[in-house]
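stage 2 :: seqdesign
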């Protein structure tokens, strides 16, 4: 039976912790151990964790003396791992029934697989009945190069983190999470792992991502998000080197996609009249892809900027009215012609 180490980083999530841990302990078909890593939470996390540890010998608990942040806490957990495989599961998330056995089965049968993941359900209230263990399911294995292509197609993280089972020996070979990537560390890690071998993909729900007002990703939007994603691809690409045959093509595609996203962020800033934000977004877009200057939307925005946001809204209002659209007193479109 495969052994699985589950790291559960927790900061101010005492009210979610029991559900998370119990979703791990209910996993059949694997020998599981769980480590609750408390990043100096100011809530009842110590009391909840100690109660869970008293109830089940498979649970361990450690508390940072000071708040170290999620990246350092992840790395402490990786050092602790001793199972064949490991999984990072935030204390506000949960595993689906049978998730670990399914993922471990793929990796047991394919020693070249470094990472296996499946689908997730995003919900405010995870419930096991939403993801019953299937009688049958499909799993496939793709090469590391293919996984890079899949990720670069969208220039973002395609792996639901609560479902990502990693081969521990490979993880300890390639090293820990990067402190300079607090927002995109997962993306960089999956890409780096794919540089070492294949990736397994399971076509069923493997975990629950709990949506609430305090999710860590909420603070990264706009250019902060784009820059972190770009840095993740760059760092992983430097680490993978020649092990990803089509790396240059993938990186070119990533740069183009992120440049386009930066452009559209600048276009939205124009609509708001945020001049400094427009300049910053367009400068970053050109930094990533100078060829964007010849793109038709770029030329259109240049005309709009010459007119100015107020004049442009007036022109657009007249054009839309000619087509039957309606505008409010602020010059904002409120209805389209039928």
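stage 2 :: out
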């Amino acid at each position: 039976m495969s052994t699985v180490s589950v790291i559960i980083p927790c900061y101010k999530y005492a009210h979610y912790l029991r559900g998370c841990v119990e979703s791990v302990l209910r996993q059949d078909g694997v020998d599981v151990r769980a480590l609750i890593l408390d990043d100096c939470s100011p809530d009842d996390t110590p009391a909840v964790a100690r109660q869970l540890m008293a109830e089940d010998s498979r649970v361990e608990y450690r508390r940072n003396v000071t708040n170290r942040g999620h990246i350092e806490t992840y790395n402490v957990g990786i050092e602790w791992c001793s199972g064949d495989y490991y999984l990072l599961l935030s204390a506000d998330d949960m595993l689906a029934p049978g998730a670990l056995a399914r993922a471990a089965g793929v990796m047991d049968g394919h020693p070249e697989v470094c990472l296996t993941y499946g689908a997730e359900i995003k919900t405010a209230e995870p419930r096991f009945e939403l993801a019953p263990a299937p009688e049958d399911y499909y799993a496939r294995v793709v090469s590391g190069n293919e996984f890079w292509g899949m990720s670069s197609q969208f220039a973002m993280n395609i792996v639901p983190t609560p479902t990502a089972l990693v081969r521990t020996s490979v993880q300890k070979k390639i090293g820990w999470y990067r402190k300079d990537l607090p927002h995109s560390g997962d993306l960089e890690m999956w890409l780096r792992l794919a540089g070492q071998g294949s990736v397994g993909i399971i076509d069923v729900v493997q975990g629950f991502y709990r949506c609430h007002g305090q999710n860590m990703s909420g603070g990264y939007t706009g250019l902060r998000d784009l820059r972190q994603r770009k840095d993740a691809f760059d760092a992983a690409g430097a680490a993978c080197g020649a092990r990803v045959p089509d790396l240059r093509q993938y990186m070119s595609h990533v740069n183009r996609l992120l440049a386009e996203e930066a452009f559209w962020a600048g276009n939205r800033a124009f609509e708001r009249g945020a001049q400094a934000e427009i300049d910053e977004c367009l400068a970053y877009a050109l930094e990533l892809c100078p060829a964007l200057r010849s793109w038709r939307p770029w030329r259109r925005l240049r005309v709009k900027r010459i007119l100015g946001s107020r004049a442009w809204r007036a022109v657009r209002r007249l054009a839309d009215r000619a087509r039957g659209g309606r505008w409010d007193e602020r010059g904002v479109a409120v209805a389209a012609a039928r």
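stage 3 :: structure notes
- Residues 304 and 312 are 6 Å apart (CA to CA).
- The mean pLDDT is 92.
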